[in-house]
Design a protein that fits this description.
Two copies of one chain form a homodimer.
Chain A lengths: L2 E3 L4 E6 L4 E6 L6 E7 L9 H8 L9 E3 L5 E8 L13 H8 L7 H10 L13 E3 L23 E7 L3 E6 L14 E5 L4
Antiparallel strand pairs in A: 1-10, 2-9, 3-8, 3-10, 4-7, 4-9, 5-6, 6-8
Chain lengths: 196, 196
Amino acid sequence: MIRVIAPRSGVAFELKRGESLKVIDPLGEQVADLVAFNRHDTGEAISSGRSIDYASKIYLTTGDPIYSNRSSVLLRIVEDTVGRHDFLLSPCSAEMFRILYGDDAPHRGCFGNLAAVLAPYGVAPDAIPTAFNVFMNVPVDAGTGAIHVEPPLSRAGDYIVFEAQMDLLIGLTACSAGMSNNFAYKPIHYEVSGRD
Amino acid sequence: MIRVIAPRSGVAFELKRGESLKVIDPLGEQVADLVAFNRHDTGEAISSGRSIDYASKIYLTTGDPIYSNRSSVLLRIVEDTVGRHDFLLSPCSAEMFRILYGDDAPHRGCFGNLAAVLAPYGVAPDAIPTAFNVFMNVPVDAGTGAIHVEPPLSRAGDYIVFEAQMDLLIGLTACSAGMSNNFAYKPIHYEVSGRD
């Protein structure tokens, strides 16, 4: 069954070892921030710094593992119709909208959405790691190191599939940041293999 | 007074708001991993994901702030004679030496050194963030996203100076990874302004 994440919102759910999570961009150019924790010990979480180090690349795609802060593999990417995702940037947040967008009455962003849905599982806001930002398109200038947030390369129906390598707690959003989504807030669809 | 961090070791110390920390490469081509926490609430720590987002670049240098996971400025870079540091990669660790170097009896690395020196301050290993890797030289291929660890650009006597924007707990190492230091393990020197 395909589930819907409404624009600018988020969900949390368990994903058991061996299950697959398909994240779908139903309309195109929409980012989904994904975080994952060891279901049985949420002190272990996805780590951008470990995953990039072990993959020796910043853009992960089919076949690449996502490691934890304890150097265990939490997820593996098993299908990917887009091939461009970000693993450098923190989830958008009220503070980010103030600092980068100059917004006086900011949305709580993916960070606030993740904090809200993860709280019942005992995950504190401080423990939310740099997300794997599905479909987010952040080119880097190799000379200067400058980064730019550009519209996602995903078109309607594009997707990525992750396979859980241990029992996990997942947080997943339909991203709330204008620049990341070509200034249109759209839903995200997802499906867990083998469940209604 | 200049203090010495022996090769492949680390230290932790307090840095008060307004004080400056000078990190010196005495012999050249030596990395120092730096982490920082709010001294009064160590749940707040430097954040690569927030700092890169707000700076819109991956290579930070003079004038750039280092933000926390709560979007506060913890440190500001006020001098930098090198201009190339890494903020993508986690501290080297026993697991890293096993996974990337195939080392059967690995050193505990900067991660183990930081965990040991930060433990008396109540910082758990899981809470050690992606470090600001002073002098570490990690070029990125803009097309493929591939990263390469190359020898530091620092020469003997080069340095960087950080100014604390709040009371901080600092962890600092002389990095233990061969590839990061052109395969020579050297000391790091540091000095805190206004202290003997």
